[in-house]
Structure formats: structure tokens, C-alpha cells
């Protein structure tokens, strides 16, 4: 009975691997060097949020059990954010308040990026990236082109491929 507590859950391992691949893609040097995402804590959050939003969008269009994968992946993202806050020394009493802000930021970005991606509106997406990622009103056209290419590529993948080989993202340098 007690030994069952120490067995690896294959579903959890699959989600952890998928999340790790997304996080790794969000740290691609080209995102920071070529596309100019600030290499700061906030910039890293923006890059990770963007890649999570793109994968979650692709999962929404796939058949069952993609919605369960999306839920588990979102849970993994927020567990990672919680652990990161604690690792940075945020106290236990403050973590829930910070997590609420993280959740609001993440879902706000998902909402802000979803409509332009659905409408193939590069100008609106570039403006949203300019505000959220770069903190200004100048549009972020290269990042928008990167996001459109990634979105198309992810939507061409089936669930098995996404889970087995992970999401593939374009080279950021090609959009600079």
C-alpha cells in the first residue's frame, strides 16, 4: 500500500515533460537577443506566458483528452510560478496574493492575444505585445510574426505528437 505512493504517475510525468519543453522554448536566446524581449524576471514571465498561451490554444482545438492535458499543463505552470516565488524568498503569507496577480496577468495576456491570433490581426497582436512585453505603445511586429508562425505550427500538430516530441517553435532569429 505505502509503496504505491512512490510510483511515478505516467500522466504527471508526461505533463512535466511537456511543461519543461515549453519553459525551455521560452528561454531561447533568440527571443531576447533577436526579438528584444527584456532578459529580466518580467521578460521571462512574458516569454513563458506567450509560449503557454500558444500551446493551450492548440490544445483547445484537439479532441479528448486534450482539455485534460490543458488543465494539467496550466496546473503545472501555476505550481512552477508558486515554487519560483517561494524560491525568491516571498513569504508564505504573501504567496497567495502574488499568485493572484500572476494568474490575473497570465489570463489577461491569454485574453489579449487570443482575439488578434484568431482574427489574424498582426497589428493588434503587435500592439498587445508592445504593451505587455515591452511596456510601451510601440508595436512589436517581429514578436507578433513569431507568434503567428508558432500558432500555425502548433495547430498543425496532433495530441500524440505534441505529447511525445513536444511543441515545436520557430527560430526567433528568423523574425528579427
UniProtKB/TrEMBL annotation:
Extent of the signal sequence: none
Domain of life: Bacteria
Segments forming domain Ubiquinol-cytochrome c chaperone: 34-169
Protein family membership: Belongs to the UPF0174 family.
PANTHER family on file: UBIQUINOL-CYTOCHROME C REDUCTASE COMPLEX ASSEMBLY FACTOR 1 FAMILY MEMBER, UBIQUINOL-CYTOCHROME-C REDUCTASE COMPLEX ASSEMBLY FACTOR 1
Name of the protein this chain belongs to: Ubiquinol-cytochrome c chaperone domain-containing protein
Lineage: Bacteria, Pseudomonadati, Pseudomonadota, Alphaproteobacteria, Hyphomicrobiales
